[in-house]
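User: Predict the complex with NAP.
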Amino acid sequence: MGKLDGKVAVVTGSTRGIGLAIAEAYVREGAELVISSRTQGAVDEAVKHLREAGGKAAGLACDVSHQEQVQALADFAVQNFGKVDIWFNNAGLETAYGPTMSYSAEDFNKVVQTNIMGVYYGSRAALQLFLPRHSGKLINMVGKGYKGPEPYQNAYASSKAWVFSFTKALAREYADSGVGIFNFSPGLVVTDMLTHFDVIEGHEHRLRVFPTVVRVLGRKPEYPASRAVWAASSATDGKTGLLINSFSYHMALAGMVKEVIRLITRQPAETPEIHMRSVPPVK
Ligand SMILES: NC(=O)c1ccc[n+]([C@@H]2O[C@H](COP(=O)([O-])OP(=O)(O)OC[C@H]3O[C@@H](n4cnc5c(N)ncnc54)[C@H](OP(=O)(O)O)[C@@H]3O)[C@@H](O)[C@H]2O)c1
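Assistant: Here is the predicted structure with NAP placed in the model:
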């Protein structure tokens, strides 16, 4: 018996990276899945992949920065599967790495619209379904910066601090509603977000140790995905307001020990390929 048998889940930004791994894990545990991202071809591909693995899945392109598209996603889930039990606001993006004045207001706004407004629209759509029936799990993805300021990643980090605070407040407002409302922190995960990004010219040196950090602390998306199963399962029934963290000091320590052994034994480093593109600052 799966931990999510009979449940219907919507995961935003679920065509690759952590979102896809969460979708795969949910399907393995018996959930019916609604896949989405901005790219229709990627949605179709992910749905096919889940169905081929024996899962029940349907998908709709949805840019979370547009409220009507998020509402359409919720309607699509109900039309296809009759209900929604789990809503995971996972979709997120970042600006180029660098000082705040070096990227455009347009790029800043993209982060705000996706990471902040997307979570707000998703939370609204989910709670409209969950509150009348006094059940459901709403899970919002935080990330670097949710605990405090992160210079050179200001737009992204501030957006995650907003998500953290917003989700905590929601959980308190609806503490007696029967709905579980959680923040989820995946730790450092090797995905496109980590391996393909822009850096403002002249700031590349600040990321000199980044490949080593990724090698030592970065984990596969399957790791947070298994924690996301726990978050959505009956293990969290009756709970709300939790920060569900998939970072583990044991894993971090194990990564460091492995790195020391590698250095002592002079083995070659298996660093994931990191594609850092230098871009000029905006004037
Ligand atoms: N990787 C990490 O180490 C890490 C650490 C902490 C937190 N996180 C958070 O975890 C989440 C997933 O990250 P990831 O590393 O898996 O990123 P990723 O590999 O870049 O995948 C992001 C997913 O979101 C979709 N997406 C982006 N913007 C969207 C939008 N406006 N509307 C709908 N879908 C959108 C992407 O598809 P399309 O481009 O086709 O839309 C893709 O499916 C993000 O919220 C990120 O901030 C990641």
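The chain has a mean pLDDT of 96.
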